[in-house]
Amino acid sequence: MIHDAQMDYYGTRLATCSSDRSVKIFDVKNGGQILIADLRGHEGPVWQVAWAHPMYGNILASCSYDRKVIIWKEENGTWENTYEYTGHDSSVNSVCWAPHDFGLMLACGSSDGAISLLTYTGDGPWDVKKISNAHTIGCNAVSWAPSVVPGSLVDQPSGQRPSYIKRFVSGGCDNLVKIWKEEDGQWKEDQKLEAHSDWVRDVAWAPSIGLPTSTIASCSQDGRVYIWTCDDPTTDNWNPKLLHKFNDVVWHVSWSITANILAVSGGDNKVTLWKESADGQWACISDVNKGQGAVSSVTDGQQNEQ
Amino acid sequence: MAAHWSSENVVVEFRDSQATAMSVDCQGQLAVLSSRRFLYIVNLDTPTEGHRKISRQSKWDIGTVQWNPHDSYGYFFAASSNQRVDLYQWKDGTGDIATSLQGHTRVISDLDWSVFEPDVLVTSSIDTYIYIWDIKDTRKPTVSLSAVAGASQVKWNKKNGNCLATSHDGDVRIWDRRRPSTAVEYIAAHLYKIHGLDWHPDNEHILATSSQDNSVKPFSNGLVTVMVPQLRRENSLLLWNVYDLHSPVHIFVGHDDVVLEFHWRKQKEGQKDYQLVTWSRDQTLRMWRVDAQLQRLCANDEIMELDELMDGMSLMPEQKIMQPQEQTSGPSEEEVAFSEDSSSMPVMVGDTEQCSLPQTLQQEFSLINVHIRNVNIEMDAMNRSCTVSVRCGNHRVRMVVKFPVQYPNNAAPSFQFVPPTTITSAMKVKLLKILKDTSLQKVKRNQSCLEPCLRQLVSCMESFVDQESSPSDNPFSLQNPVTPPLPTFARVTNAYGSYQDANIPFPRTSGARFCGAGYLVYFTRPMTMHRTVSPTEPTPRSLSALSAYHSGVIAPMKIRTEAPGNLLLYGGSPTRSEKEQVSISSFYYKERKSRRWKSKRETSDSSSRPIKAAGKVIIQDISCLLTVHKALGEMYILNRGDLQEMCQKNAASALSVGRRDLVQVWALAAAANDICLTPKSDPDVETPWAHHPFGRQLLESLLTHYCHLHDVQTLAMLCSMFDAHLQPQGNGVSCHPFPSRSNHSRYPSFTSSGSGSSMSDPGFGTGGWSGGGQDGDHAAPWGDASPDEYRYGNINYVDPREREKEQHDKNKRILDPANTQQFDDFKKCYGEILYRWGLQEKRAEVLKFVSSPPEPHRGIEFGIYCSHCRSEVRGTQCAICKGFTFQCAICHVSVRGSSNFCLSCGHGGHTAHMLEWFSNQEVCPTGCGCHCLLESTF
């Protein structure tokens, strides 16, 4: 059973992870599919993968039920386990790389309720910061804010370069969506967004195209997808808007690169795409029909049953 | 109706009542018996006469009925029926439904009134939710506890108003209603299904459970104090003293059939005796007096200290649950899944089998599942007998079963042990008793009994062997009620699918993600995989649900039509062996063509084939849905030399990809760039075009429109173009930072003049791309004309004309200078997208128009020693000797702008000079002999 599939920055490679404990990397250039690597190292089902920005090399992070986060790196054509993080006490459910401007930084959310931030400065060991009890019961998802911070739209004092405010959003079993902010090297809870009536399964901070509005999508076990918007970065006033109430759990939301389309998928085995009209209403623009218009498809026949 | 008075008890028979549940009110005055058609209210003082009936119209049996235990609400009783709870009001001899509580989506398994609040009621259901209701507001439950697994029993703590316990298969969960999201405590109490659960009346921390595994266990503080295995005796009720758990204090003998319900009756004033009211399937209500002598037998004076126990089969909650299911399930009833797991209990299989009952012995033999673990059966239908061999541990049992001619119509088979049976005679007696009881119970209902008997036999043997192999667990050795916790209650730490997974979200089996710059990657479950539960039921939220599905607690409806093997339906036990690995696939099953039961054997063969659980991952090009076009990205040009031509070409490009709106935009842009609109340098001549409605305002409305569309491509191009529009004419903005564009893009690591690049080209590792480095000059790559300088630069103008000029410069701009930062963000964002498309040169062209300084360099920086005084310097000018720090090796002039030098010898100079030199030389121009090209990154 596949749990996640993600392409790299350029859209030339596909990484999949599965309950058979493997992570597989396929070359999908020109519609083909070649298995490049079958990464073994996890001792449980692998929940999620994440590609780092290519300026740091070909780096992939994976997280698993076995409480480990593994960072894989391609060196001279072979993939190797470059770092293994074992600081969580329960299943690690989500990994997400920070925008490249922040450096090589990974956020990990775990069922032990904690969120870890792993940073690599280029030499020496990985630096680990941990927010314990970020979400009571467990953290299910993390997503970084884009580095183009709306706050920087306000005129900067002369000569000063915009200093990036590092923020990310997380969702957990306490039905909350929380925004975290780095202040003086410490991670602090910035906002607590409350609307869901059951576990939050995924959160996605929309990529910025330079507009002052910040947008976050969150989805939950309760079948609801909310779009949170913050128009004024100075007030930190986030407004939820119900996108849709689905009949089954919604467990994944994903923004398109210009943040105009949201892909929603869940327990009903369907994928729907949503677009915001000019008057701010969200409408479903398509159910992705299986196999139609696909430029290439990968059948992971080798993924074993688990 | 007939009453028999005896010294011992009162017997009232309600023939044909078919009542399934009973409750005694708080006064001990009234009892309610509930059946499908009527509710009988019986006055317990005069039980033989004057009972009233409340008729009800329902096809469902009453699952549970309970009087409100509070005097103030004593006339209320609640009765659960399928998914609903009806609150009845009994006043002046008549009863009506006061209100109904609806919320559960599956059958309600149990309900309990709060001990402390008269209007609070808790219900549990196999839909996995436990609802706490306030009967003042019956629209929805006030609290909802989600248990993942269906609950079969629920009971409020009698001392703590916030605490309640539920049973789930063999587990007990303790909840605090203030924390509804998760249970406070999990107790792996029994190996098999729990049928009875009750709290200690005086101690907050003690509760008792009874289970299918024939044992009753009181718990305190989560520790086991005593464990009492008890053989099944359906028709009797046993009274125990918790301080002496070796044998029951008293056995209430009298009922002819299973005891369904029992309650203590409230003591009347002046009366010393307690009374126990029981209701049995034999349709009799009995009241038992617990007299002073019997009370003395109970070590403690307080009779409420006694734990009264009922035996395994008596409470049969599964039957209550199963009945509605049978009525709702479809025509596929003929198909029966037989579990290969021997530990399953006949009760659980029992009712599901009813519809497919084989009528003859031959049929039964052909249907029997020969795959029961450790069991061998030789069947001889001609002689109406079969021989069964069981191996379990070191023990062997061989047994001959003979079936009478009338079997299974109220005629039980006979069981006889034959050599080489190795078990003790005491055990034989016990086994025979169990087999007899099991078979009788089935044949009474004219059902075949062989398979249930075999399963019962195997599970009993296993439990005996288990007891033998772990003598420390032997409950009879536990004299002291306070003993260390038994190993069976140790928490399962690493088992996949254990309750510890209760806070791990249920795995995603489908998902979609936008990747790269125009792909949607999605994966779904294979089309052939379907969920075992009905599609209307939501996917469970937690991974621990797998174990629930695995053990069949939730008894997914479709499961019965499924072939065995894929799912271990009747795992029954929460402590599973290595073999029974739970997997995510257990939630889903592979679709099969439905088969008739005749081909069952074939089905079990095919079930050994592994199912292909992995689905397809589909990469879909969704660029048509995006507002940015890769083709446009390739075709668009930014030509500051001839803006008119640029606009025309870009309009043609937009037309070629079908963006007619953009054709107009480019046409407008061309018009706005017309040479006759060029702002004059003298502010007094005319108002700049930017202040015309078709100037800045028009552009702004265009930008707003494309912002709404998230068309960052158009936004970035417009911003770049109107920057370009201004720059060649601006005052003194002639010094362009990129004299040669091709140089810049071809040698991104060579030039040091801040390229505005916030990213490197692919293939460069951390810090790798900084080899070219940036010298101290990099702070002012824009020369004097940096827009930043305009905005923030020297504010203290001496000359008012300067100020006017600056104001005019701002006014001339068609792009509002106040939003420069945002325009830069558009460009950076578009640059990022171009980079994903692999259009690095296009990206560089766009990023040239970014006004704000590039992000501070964080790679290697080069420290410079002043060429005059040798002190360490940052920047171009030495702080000590005030001389320029870096001299060009070719022209011997101090370097201010773009520079390059050798990492090995430290010599270098103007980039252009160095390029020229090394185009035909290999050694350092200073003559130091260093092979700079080989040594460093030149």
TrEMBL record, chain A:
Subcellular location: Lysosome membrane; Nucleus, Nuclear pore complex
InterPro entries: Sec13/Seh1_fam, WD40/YVTN_repeat-like_dom_sf, WD40_repeat_dom_sf, WD40_rpt
GO MF term (any one): structural molecule activity
Biological role: As a component of the GATOR2 complex, functions as an activator of the amino acid-sensing branch of the mTORC1 signaling pathway. The GATOR2 complex indirectly activates mTORC1 through the inhibition of the GATOR1 subcomplex. GATOR2 probably acts as an E3 ubiquitin-protein ligase toward GATOR1. In the presence of abundant amino acids, the GATOR2 complex mediates ubiquitination of the NPRL2 core component of the GATOR1 complex, leading to GATOR1 inactivation. In the absence of amino acids, GATOR2 is inhibited, activating the GATOR1 complex.
The protein's assembly and partners: At the nuclear pore: component of the Y-shaped Nup107-160 subcomplex of the nuclear pore complex (NPC). The Nup107-160 subcomplex includes NUP160, NUP133, NUP107, NUP98, NUP85, NUP43, NUP37, SEH1 and SEC13. At the COPII coat complex: interacts with SEC31A and SEC31B. Interacts with SEC16A. Interacts with SEC16B. Component of the GATOR2 subcomplex, composed of MIOS, SEC13, SEH1L, WDR24 and WDR59. The GATOR2 complex interacts with CASTOR1 and CASTOR2; the interaction is negatively regulated by arginine.
Family as reported in the entry's similarity comment: Belongs to the WD repeat SEC13 family.
Protein name in the entry: Protein SEC13 homolog
Organism expressing this protein natively: Pyxicephalus adspersus
Lineage, opening ranks: Eukaryota, Metazoa, Chordata, Craniata, Vertebrata
TrEMBL record, chain B:
Keywords in alphabetical order: Repeat, WD repeat
Keyword Repeat: yes
One Gene Ontology term of the molecular function aspect: signaling adaptor activity
Domain RWD: 363-464
Keyword Signal set for record: no
Listed Low complexity bias regions: 746-763
Biased composition annotated in UniProt, kind: Gly residues: 764-774
Region feature Disordered, mapped onto this chain: 746-787
WD repeat residue intervals: 101-143
Lineage: superkingdom: Eukaryota
Gene3D superfamilies: YVTN repeat-like/Quinoprotein amine dehydrogenase
GO biological process, one term: cellular response to amino acid starvation
SUPFAM superfamilies in the cross-refs: WD40 repeat-like
GO cellular component: Seh1-associated complex; vacuolar membrane
Family stated for the protein in its record: Belongs to the WD repeat WDR59 family.
Protein name per its UniProtKB record: RWD domain-containing protein
Organism: Pyxicephalus adspersus
Lineage per the UniProt record: Eukaryota, Metazoa, Chordata, Craniata, Vertebrata
